[in-house]
């Protein structure tokens, strides 16, 4: 790559005494405004925002915040905390190690966006500003004051553009005691679980609340990132990798216990299936760099294989395997299918491979559609699919029935959620170990430069085929569970692009959006891509449009994905490199060459 | 580890690489025409020629990237398979004219890729992580670090390859090639774009490689570098081998000078141009690569 110096990106602000902010305010006044605005937002949440309970979430009660009001409280508290963190308040220094203005601004922006969105939504939904109660006015004014105050705070750059970045250098912090580090990771996992279960728990009809929630999450995460806390946290994670992974799984295990409604567990298990398949695709796309546009077919192969041996009366072969055998059958079928597709196609590179895999993906769906006894042999029952797939029974445990565990009712979908979580754990385990090994390195080498990789002794075809087959096998494993969760297997979901996941386009988007080559990325991408269409029902026909716009914006502003792989981040943002060579070229390099030659 | 590097300086030289009558045609264009070349153990052989003479094409025939239209290439007596990874496995490693590192991998990982052919842990052992896997991984790392020390890059093991300065990227390519424990190292313009200090450092590095018992075949335009370094030089012009011999012989050959500079005009003094003409070439070709 080029070695152009990255000067002029940030005009190196003076070390101390940042200049004035965008708004010319005295610093004390600006601070006061931020705190006042944040507090006002919090207080407003305890007042009535509208007179009628027609607006989703019932915001009419004094002293009892609900729906968007709870979200406003979080935004307000965040604003106050970040506002105080800039001052030397004891116990808050960790929140904003660089004492930067940006996180204060972004926190205030989150409060502003949530309150103004709420007021506008009330006015639009109910028909006019007259529907706003005093609480809404307080909230709107509070949000605005906080934002104006944040803009008045001293800032290194003094331009609005500079308010969104994160500090170049974080002051080194002494690490807390190891038990405290672990506690922090645990708390973060709990917090993530809380946010996730709150988001998934929002009623499907309360699109307004969900949008408010999504806005808050985006801006709050942005504020935390701007404060450098994500960087700190990933350092902690790197130190306690096993512990952090364990905590993440513990949080996932705890998820069904936070839900009273089995419907949400259904969402949870579908997200897990989607995320697991995306993780398998990440081996193919993220590590090996093979663009596979027909990957969902492998999920389909696994699902059909499991359905055929499930003992359903619609299955063309009337046998019933125990689940472990069915899972192995699904994996084996996907493996065979993966090798069969991979062997001829993997000799192609780049765009050609993408088109051929797209073709094979569609061939699978169309073939399955036609193997119905009239246009072909009767294997898959055609468009009707294989339905009435019986529930699993493992060791006398019937997955179809609810069970009571310690006072919590664990419903059918929650049972499958636990099973799928086990499979996700297996896939994460395989992914991590494979990525960090001789074979994983050769995948990355193939992605980086296939010609050089073969010249270094890597059998490109073989290594690519292994990646392809492993990805297919893992997708097939997820497919076996998915067949039982949904009772029936039909051809339609296994298409290239559709309005609802899983389909190849969404899978690829989950990988790219979340972050290629990472474990967390595809899973986070799967959560977003599944939850957002589910909760924003009003989008309906515009779903794909909104999805496309979101992807374009993301690729413009964060091409490495939400959770970037370290390599990818360095590839796209040459500033802030982890390892800049400390000593440049030897003295007297350029220019001297010709004179001396 | 470097068991292939067995030849001691005292042992009688054995033929490492023998290319017989190698011809490479692309459609109607004959890029390389019946070239013979041998490289003996403990020898540094140079391959020179004007741009477009077919040097890199010949290299690609040796490394399996191209399958020669006619002729055969043998390595230690066995005919080379027509696949690059098998050629590397057989014991021929190469570097590239335009650096082809794995830019987004660390320096250490780049060298570990070079170890690929000498290790065989597959997917299963990666997942199961038995003692065999861990030992092999540790041994690979140790050998890679050894090579980084040999090339003087040990303190940059964790840097991304893309962030290395140009000269160190060239060194890393050599380290990566050495990681496959080759018996023959092919260097394609290892000093292109380097300044004189870096060129001298490369020279020493190549001598050090030779002292480990690895034969070296090097393409280069920098004549000072070639004539300092090589035991034998072959000159390729328009796909054919014009002359082969010791640096002195090649340096004095009029046809080589003519190939580089064009035929001298009638009545020009023959003596002297040969001596001065070739160093002058250095400047011309250096200019091409910057």
Q: What global shape of chain A is seen?
A: globular
Assembly annotation: heterodimer
- Major sheet of chain A: 2 strands, antiparallel
Round the mean pLDDT of chain B to the nearest integer and report it.
84
User: How does the helix and strand content of chain A classify structurally?
Assistant: mainly alpha
> What is the first-to-last residue Cα distance of chain A?
26 Å
Number of strands of chain A: 4
> Compute the gyration radius of chain B: what is it?
20 Å
Q: How would you describe this structure to a colleague?
A:
The complex is a heterodimer of chains A (597) and B (290). Chain A is an all-alpha fold. Chain A has helices at residues 27-44, 68-86, 102-126, 134-152, 178-201, 207-226, 229-239, 241-258, 262-287, 296-308, 323-345, 350-370, 412-435, 438-448, 450-455, 460-485, 504-514, 520-535, 543-557, 566-572, 592-596, and strands at residues 393-394, 397-398, 403-405, 408-410. Chain A folds into 3 domains: 18-180 and 207-239, de novo design (two linked rop proteins) (Up-down Bundle); 259-400 and 412-497, no CATH class; 566-597, no CATH class. Chain A has 21 helices and 4 strands. In chain A, α3 packs antiparallel against α6. Residues 1-16 and 574-597 of chain A have low confidence and may be disordered. Chain B has 290 residues and is an alpha/beta fold. Chain B contains 11 helices and 10 strands. Chain B has helices spanning 55-62, 84-90, 107-114, 123-128, 131-151, 166-178, 196-211, 223-229, 247-252, 254-261, 273-288, and strands at residues 15-26, 29-40, 44-48, 70-75, 78-79, 92-94, 184-188, 215-219, 232-237, 240-245. In chain B, α3 (107-114) packs parallel to α6 (166-178). Chain B is globular, with a radius of gyration of 20 Å.
């Amino acid at each position: 790559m080029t070695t152009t110096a990255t000067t002029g990106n940030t005009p190196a602000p003076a070390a101390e005494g940042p200049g004035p902010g965008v708004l010319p305010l005295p610093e004390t006044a600006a601070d006061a405004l931020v705190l006042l605005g944040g507090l006002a937002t919090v207080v407003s949440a305890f007042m009535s925002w509208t007179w009628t309970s027609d607006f989703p979430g019932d915001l009419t009660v004094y002293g009892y915040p609900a729906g968007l009001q709870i979200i406003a409280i979080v935004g307000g508290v965040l604003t106050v905390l970040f506002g105080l963190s800039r001052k030397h308040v004891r116990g808050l220094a960790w929140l904003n190690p660089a004492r930067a203005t940006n996180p204060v601004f972004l926190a205030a922006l989150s409060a502003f966006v949530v309150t103004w969105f709420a007021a506008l939504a009330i006015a639009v939904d109910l028909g006019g500003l007259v529907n706003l109660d005093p609480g809404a006015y307080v909230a709107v004014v509070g949000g605005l004051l906080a934002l104006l105050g944040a803009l008045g705070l001293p800032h290194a750059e003094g331009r609005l553009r500079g308010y969104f970045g994160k500090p170049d250098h974080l002051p080194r912090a002494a690490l807390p005691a190891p038990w405290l580090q672990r506690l922090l990771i645990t708390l973060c996992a709990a917090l993530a679980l809380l946010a996730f279960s709150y988001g998934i728990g929002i009623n499907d009809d309360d699109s307004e609340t969900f949008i408010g929630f999504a806005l808050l999450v985006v801006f709050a995460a942005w504020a935390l990132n701007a404060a450098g806390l994500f960087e700190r946290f990933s350092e902690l994670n790197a130190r306690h990798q096993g512990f952090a992974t364990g905590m993440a799984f513990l949080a996932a295990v705890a998820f069904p216990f936070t839900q009273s409604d089995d419907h949400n567990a259904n969402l949870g298990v579908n997200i897990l299936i989607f995320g697991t398949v995306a993780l398998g695709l990440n081996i193919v796309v993220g590590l090996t760099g093979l663009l596979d546009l027909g990957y969902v077919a492998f999920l389909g192969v696994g699902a059909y294989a499991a359905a055929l041996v499930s003992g359903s009366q619609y299955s063309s072969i009337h046998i019933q395997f125990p689940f472990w055998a069915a899972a192995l059958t699904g994996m084996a079928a996907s493996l065979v299918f993966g090798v069969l597709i991979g062997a001829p196609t993997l000799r192609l590179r780049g765009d050609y491979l993408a088109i051929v895999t797209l073709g094979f993906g569609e061939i699978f769906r169309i073939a399955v559609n036609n193997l119905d006894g009239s246009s072909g042999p009767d294997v898959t029952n055609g468009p009707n699919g294989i339905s009435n797939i019986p529930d699993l029974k493992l060791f006398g445990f019937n997955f179809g029935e609810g069970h009571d565990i310690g006072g919590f009712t664990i419903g059918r979908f929650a049972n499958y959620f636990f099973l799928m979580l086990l499979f996700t754990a297996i896939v994460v385990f395989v992914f991590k170990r494979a990525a960090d090994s001789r074979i994983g390195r050769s995948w990355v080498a193939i992605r980086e430069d296939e010609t050089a990789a073969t010249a270094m002794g890597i059998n490109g075809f073989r290594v690519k085929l292994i990646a392809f087959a492993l990805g297919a096998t893992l997708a097939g494993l997820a497919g076996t569970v998915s067949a039982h969760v949904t009772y029936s297997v039909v051809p339609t979901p296994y298409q290239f692009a559709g309005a609802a996941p899983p389909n190849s386009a969404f899978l690829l988007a989950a990988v790219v959006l979340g972050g290629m080559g990472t474990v967390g990325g595809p899973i986070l991408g799967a959560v977003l891509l599944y939850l957002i269409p589910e909760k924003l029902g009003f989008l309906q026909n515009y779903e794909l449009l909104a999805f496309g716009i979101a992807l374009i914006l993301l690729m413009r502003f964060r091409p490495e994905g939400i959770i970037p792989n370290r390599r990818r981040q360095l590839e796209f943002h040459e500033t802030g490199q982890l390892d800049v060579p400390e000593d440049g070229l030897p003295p007297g390099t350029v220019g001297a060459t010709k004179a001396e030659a | 580890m470097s068991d292939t590097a067995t030849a001691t300086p005292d042992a009688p030289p054995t033929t490492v690489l023998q290319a017989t009558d190698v011809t490479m045609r692309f459609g109607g264009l004959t890029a390389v025409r019946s070239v013979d070349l041998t490289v003996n153990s403990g020898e540094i052989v140079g391959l020179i020629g004007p741009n477009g003479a077919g040097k890199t094409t010949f290299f690609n025939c040796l490394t399996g990237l191209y399958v020669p239209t006619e002729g055969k290439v043998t390595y230690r007596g066995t005919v080379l398979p027509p696949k690059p990874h098998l050629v590397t496995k057989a014991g021929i490693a190469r570097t590239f004219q335009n650096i082809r590192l794995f830019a987004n991998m660390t320096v250490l990982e780049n060298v570990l890729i070079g170890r690929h052919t000498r290790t065989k842990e597959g997917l299963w052992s990666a997942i199961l992580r038995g003692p065999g896997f861990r030992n092999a991984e540790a041994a690979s790392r140790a050998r890679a670090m050894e090579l980084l020390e040999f090339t003087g890059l040990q303190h940059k093991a964790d840097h991304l390859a893309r962030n290395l300065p140009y000269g160190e990227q060239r060194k890393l390519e050599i380290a990566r090639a050495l990681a496959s424990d080759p018996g023959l190292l092919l260097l394609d313009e290892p000093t292109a774009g380097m300044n004189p200090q870096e060129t001298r450092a490369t020279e020493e590095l190549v001598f050090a490689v030779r002292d480990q018992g690895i034969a070296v075949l090097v393409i280069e335009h920098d004549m000072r570098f070639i004539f300092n370094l090589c035991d034998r030089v072959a000159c390729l012009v328009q796909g054919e081998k014009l002359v082969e011999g010791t640096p002195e012989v090649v340096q004095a050959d009029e046809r080589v000078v003519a190939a580089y500079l064009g035929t001298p005009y009638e009545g020009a003094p023959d003596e002297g141009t040969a001596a001065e003409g070739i160093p002058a070439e250095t400047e011309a070709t250096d200019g091409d690569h910057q």
